Amino acid sequence: MNILVLNSGSSSIKFQVVQTDSALIARDGDRCLAKGQIERIGSLALVAFQAADRPPLKEDAPLRDYRSALDRIVRWVISPESGIEGVTSMADIHIVGHRVVHGGEKFRASTLIDDAVLAGIEDCIELAPLHNPANVRGIRAAREVFGRGVPQVAVFDTSFHATMPETAYLYGIPYHLYRRYKIRRYGFHGTSHRYLAYRYRVLNKIAKEDVNIITLHLGNGCSACAIKNGESVNTSMGFTPLEGMVMGTRAGDVDVSVIEYLSHKEGLSLPEMITLLNKQSGLLGLSGLTSDMRELLEEEKENGDRRASLAIDVFCASARRRIGAYLAELGGADALVFSGGIGENSPVIRQRVCRGLEPLGIVLDEARNAALKKGQLGRISKSGSRVKIDVIATNEELLIARDAFRAVSGLPQPTFSPRRSRKP
Ligand code: ADP
Question: Which of 97, 241, 319, 383 is deepest in the core (most CB within 10 A)?
Fold first, then answer.
């Protein structure tokens, strides 16, 4: 089956066409046939498409909304120009799978979308005003383009973390506020952490219950996850993706009193403060230069820029702190897994994150780390390291496609149920 996987952002759509079915899943043979993205929807949009083993297509196109952007994607996917094997008409796209950021407490598994589910996703807009509206627009656009005959499936960033115990997801605020408004840690990047746990299990030929690892997803957004017996027991992002580690433009953990103090000093409204913490902080805010880690590393190396170094050091320290916290949470881990654009591609950052962790049993092999080529996966810890260190390229789209296939075929889905609190 061919699954169109959509990741709809505020003014962008990323997509992949993934071929999967039971036999392919069983032998881990499902594959991406094409991928691409459209950015700056609403103005002169930037289109970048690529089918497997074909040259990329890049162009500017005036695309005023999601519907026109999706039309453009689908026209290309089924055209001879893309040359995707076995996809020559709309009928060759069998299912649309959507990445949905927030599923609240309601959605603990990937779900076939009907009107009630769409309403449920809309209800979660309150919890994720920056993300869920785009996901809803993506679902509506897909309904318009494909009609109701093509099933659509929602795969939630939050659902993998639904197994967290109360001790991990409750904040230390009055309990009735959790009851009344569902204020709690939800966690995000769940499909990525779930993929990393899955891939680690496959690579090491172990059962799901034997996966006890810490995963670090370091991209523009960053999060860490403590995985015990194959399940998420804690993660660094919280009620929204703002909490946790220092990220590209997000501040991560900040004493909330700063908000009142700063809004008073700078005359900023509450929404302006939240924008500052989401969009002008992190690597960008600390360096005053860019949120892009690769550029910061270049600035540091070529120009010795002090603020670039500082931003990188604060970033690495925040990741390191999270590793320490989760080693305590898990009572030790078998492996630390690096992923995301930074985690997969930057030996220097991996080395700086691991620096000083040797007494905790995390011993990086510098030669192996440096030798790992961009985008390669592999083990980079020293042979005797108590905690292994692995680099694994994440692949959220693959799990979205598999979940979508299973949901439509009536096959059992992984479901993530909350755990009773564990006694320490
Ligand atoms: P997103 O979270 O938006 O999916 P990515 O996972 O692609 O983003 O990560 C983007 C980040 O990865 C950027 O900060 C980028 O600079 C960084 N990155 C990509 N390649 C490298 C590299 N070779 N060295 C350092 N950082 C890199």
Answer: 97
